Structures are given as structure tokens and as C-alpha cells.
Amino acid sequence: MTIDKQALRERYSPKPAPECHICGKEMTIQRMSASRITYGCTGATYDDKGCHYAEGRSIADDHYEQSRVTVVDVSDPDVLALLDELCSA
């Protein structure tokens, strides 16, 4: 039996934030609970002067509501550390 280390590394590595299926922008974390992460597209940018919404966007608008998605995070740094040890041995 052989272990597909690359498949394990991909499975247990953290995943990047998803892109909004409506506008294509990277979504931000809106809620976390155990291994479930809810992302949403807020249309907001932040700078020294505070929060600014894209033109035509506002807090909790329809775009935000329709963009929300919940994913299960199965990333595990311990598994990744074990894989590193196996590969260096």
C-alpha cells in the first residue's frame, strides 16, 4: 500500500477564501463555528478612514445575502507537520 502524500497535503491544507459567484471578488469570513466557515461578499473596503462600500452596495444587501456560502474546514496543521517529517526522513 502506498500513501499519496500529495493528495493528503492538498486535503489537509487550508483553502483560500472563495470568490463570489455573482461578482467574482474574494469573499470574507462572516461567521465561524467549529469547522464551518460562512463567507459573504460585503462589497466593503477598509482603509485609515474606515469602511467604504462599493457603489450601489450597502451593509447586508441582496448581493451579500445571495453570495453567502458555508464551507467545512478540514485543514489540519498536525497532518501537514507529519507529512513534512515523512518527506524529510
In words, what does this structure look like?
The structure is a single chain. The protein is of the alpha+beta class. The protein has 3 helices and 5 strands. The protein has a domain of 60 residues. It has a 3-stranded antiparallel β-sheet. Helix 1 packs antiparallel against helix 3. The two termini are 18 Å apart. The mean pLDDT is 93.
Highlighted features:
single chain, 89 residues, alpha+beta, three-stranded antiparallel beta sheet, 5 strands, Ead_Ea22, Ead/Ea22-like family protein
Which helices and strands appear, and what pairs or packs with what?
Elements: H1 5-12, E1 28-33, E2 36-40, E3 44-47, E4 50-53, H2 62-67, E5 69-72, H3 77-88
Helix pairs in contact: 1-3
Segments where pLDDT lies below 50 for 5+ residues?
none
Order of helices and strands: HEEEEHEH
What characteristic shape results from the CA principal axes?
elongated
| Quaternary structure of the protein | single chain
Q: Based on DSSP secondary structure assignment, what is the total number of beta strands?
A: 5
Global Rg = 18 Å
Mean pLDDT: 93
In which order are the strands of the major sheet placed? Answer: 1-2-5
Q: What's the total helix number?
A: 3
Query: In which range does the helix fraction lie?
Result: 25-40%
**Termini separation:** 18 Å
Which percent range describes the beta-strand content? 25-35%
SS-derived structural category? alpha+beta
Largest sheet: 3 strands, antiparallel
Protein name: Ead/Ea22-like family protein
Pfam families: Ead_Ea22 (PF13935)
